[in-house]
Amino acid sequence: MAVTIGVARERAPGEKRVAATPETCKKLVALGAVVQIERGAGSGAHFPDQAYADAGAQLVADQAAAYGGADLVLCVQAPDAASIGLLKSGAALVGSLQPQADPARAEALQARQIVAFPLEKLPRTTRAQAMDVLSSQAGMAGYKAVLIAAQLAPRFFPMLTTAAGTIRPSKLLIIGAGVAGLQAIATGKRLGAQVEGFDVRPEVREQIESLGGKFLDLGVSAAGEGGYARQLTDEERAEQQRRLGEHLKSIDAIVCTAAVPGRPAPKIVSAAMVAGMKPGSVIVDLAAETGGNCELTRPGETYEQSGVTIAGPLNLASSGAMHASEMYARNLLNFVGLFVKDGAIAFDWNDELLAKTVWPERAAA
């Protein structure tokens, strides 16, 4: 009997993404699966029900129908405990699950003996890149953050030569040079701003410069062994903060992207630094969901402090739901391909990607 894959409409407030697109549904069907999609599941990302039907999916009435008979469920954000209760015992669940963040969710997963794959736990290896949901969604968030900064700024980003005189380009600083930060640098350059990138890891200088940005060197290196940043001493951190505060006085817009998986975001921009910025400056803090890189960030709010606009947007990837869903769904398709073979589920726990992503984790045999 063919494996049944269920996909329901996302229930989290404001979530528009979907875990399977018509494109990936067609490929899942080609793997021998029966795909059940709740009606309207793709509407937030502008994928109509008919497109799913044309791809070979079965449209079902509600979440209970999508989940109830499924051997494997795909999701964007983790279902709540009540929704997990709809899953059949022993089913597999793949998505951004964060079971440790909600005891009720973790208890529900264990009670139903769900084989859970929180993709945020996926090992960061070359082989896993095509399944890396954190990177694909961070790219959309970095792009959108710069557009928000440009919209909030009372200045043009590019240089303009007009009959009324020349407008100098805005100075944009991107804090953090991960996937979101690098996408933000590229987007800022496309909009014509003077872009700088700052990261405690000096080895990312080449990546920043390859995108047309200037690496902001504050004279304090956190280079450590094996490509990882080392902990700065109190004296080094104080000197770094002093130099950064001086530099921010000339910056028109900041996009903060520095994050540490599973931990609160590092505080990089202090209230004193904000007070020293020019009136009309803008801070867009992508790290708002984990507390923010700016001391004054209020998650989910945009407000003005001392003439500086501070935005703490949440779930930015969802604001680009169509392309974000396409990337996310392909990530899931590639991961599911590790264990859905010839219409059946077969887990190979010798595969590091499965063994280290499953929750609770189990060692490879």
Automatic annotation (TrEMBL):
Claim: NAD is one of the keywords in the record: yes
SMART domains noted in UniProt: AlaDh_PNT_C, AlaDh_PNT_N
Domain called Alanine dehydrogenase/pyridine nucleotide transhydrogenase NAD(H)-binding: residue spans: 150-312
One GO term describing the cellular component: plasma membrane
Translocase in keyword set: yes
One term of GO molecular function: oxidoreductase activity
Domain (Alanine dehydrogenase/pyridine nucleotide transhydrogenase N-terminal): residue spans on this chain: 6-141
Record's keyword terms, sorted: NAD, NADP, Nucleotide-binding, Translocase
GO biological process, one term: NADPH regeneration
Name of the top EC class for this enzyme: translocase
InterPro entries per the UniProt record, alphabetical: Ala_DH/PNT_CS2 (IPR008143), AlaDH/PNT_N (IPR007886), AlaDH/PNT_NAD(H)-bd (IPR007698), NAD(P)-bd_dom_sf (IPR036291)
Pfam families xref list: AlaDh_PNT_C, AlaDh_PNT_N
Gene3D superfamilies the record matches: NAD(P)-binding Rossmann-like Domain
E.C. number: 7.1.1.1
Organism superkingdom: Bacteria
Catalytic reaction list: NAD(+) + NADPH + H(+)(in) = NADH + NADP(+) + H(+)(out)
Similarity remark: Belongs to the AlaDH/PNT family.
Function: The transhydrogenation between NADH and NADP is coupled to respiration and ATP hydrolysis and functions as a proton pump across the membrane.
Protein name: proton-translocating NAD(P)(+) transhydrogenase
